[in-house]
């Protein structure tokens, strides 16, 4: 789609909440035939260290609810002052009702607050920001809460080397508000549904309901074991898509905004893994020091929560002004993956009121 431009709308704060349970990559050594050298290669190349995963009684709604409560408290905003709730997830509590309405009830928001789910994964945070900026720009709202997160660890098979060591769980809450003088923001989104089979959970929907057959394990040509109820990822296809499309789309966004790559302080990409993020950075010919990558090693690939997670984990100091330096930063956010879909935006971020990550407390 053509790029969009929004004026005087701002991201003002964000909180990411992760589960307390931690699994290190060393604990997956049996998955790689006891080969500790393979574990070391994964740590060095992909940046895998550990990941957070939710216990059976903990859902993404719980994580996002706590993130929202912390954020509202930090910003001193009453839930009744929210005009909208956008909730990005692929692991909702129920098929009906939506997680957005459940969270609306938990927060005790006003009945004039609209609430809806966005069924996207890795690109979903940027898509939801685009929706929030659009809603506020058309004059119908002043303040929209964006939730993003998943519990993907429940969808991966423990014997699937393509996914088992990569995915973690997290929930996030981000505030978007009308702010005079906030400046201009730019968005550019896209989709290629022809690649939808590259990242897919085949069973569990109306097309292929759960059954004894879908629960049967099978092994692929690489020896990975999964069922049709687990997440399937064609790693090479996803990698090729990412390094081809994402740099091109970021450059197109910056061209539209008439902003040079040198003027961008940080490129905060979906934390698929360090190798992928660095390859995109090299394609863009940008100093890799401007690409945060450490949150992947701490949380794993947490789907739509990975961008707010990276902001909170690595950039809280500069973006809130706590570490001194510039009071305003230009930041590119880039989400890409399941769909296949992608979303990029260029935001001016001026001393965010709140940016942090927390461990979930029951």
Distance between the termini: 42 Å
CATH class: Alpha Beta
What class, by secondary structure content?
A: alpha/beta
- What is the strand content? 25-35%
For the report, how would you describe the main beta sheet?
A: 6 strands, mixed
Number of domains: 1
Counting DSSP E segments of at least 2 residues, the number of strands comes to 17
CATH topology: Peroxisomal Thiolase, Chain A, domain 1
Rg, nearest Å: 19 Å
CATH architecture: 3-Layer(aba) Sandwich
Helical coverage, percent range: 25-40%
Order of helices and strands: EEEHEHEHEHEEEEEEEHEHHHHEEE
CATH superfamily: Thiolase/Chalcone synthase
Describe the structure concisely for a colleague:
This protein is of the alpha/beta class and 362 residues long. Helices cover 29% and strands 26% of the residues.
Summary tags:
globular, 362 residues, alpha/beta, Peroxisomal Thiolase, Chain A, domain 1, 17 strands, five-stranded mixed beta sheet
Provide structural commentary.
This protein is an alpha/beta fold and 362 residues long. The chain has a single domain, classed as Thiolase/Chalcone synthase (Peroxisomal Thiolase, Chain A, domain 1). Helices cover 29% and strands 26% of the residues. It contains nine helices and 17 strands. The chain has helices spanning 36-46, 60-75, 99-107, 124-137, 235-257, 274-284, 294-299, 306-314, 316-320, and strands at residues 4-7, 9-18, 22-24, 50-52, 84-88, 114-118, 143-151, 169-178, 184-191, 199-200, 218-219, 225-226, 232-233, 266-269, 328-337, 341-350, 354-359. The strands form five sheets. Strands 6-5-7-8-2-17 form a six-stranded mixed β-sheet, sandwiched between helices. Strands 1-9-16-15-14 form a five-stranded mixed β-sheet, sandwiched between helices. The longest helix has 23 residues, at 235-257. The N and C termini lie far apart (42 Å). The mean pLDDT is 94.
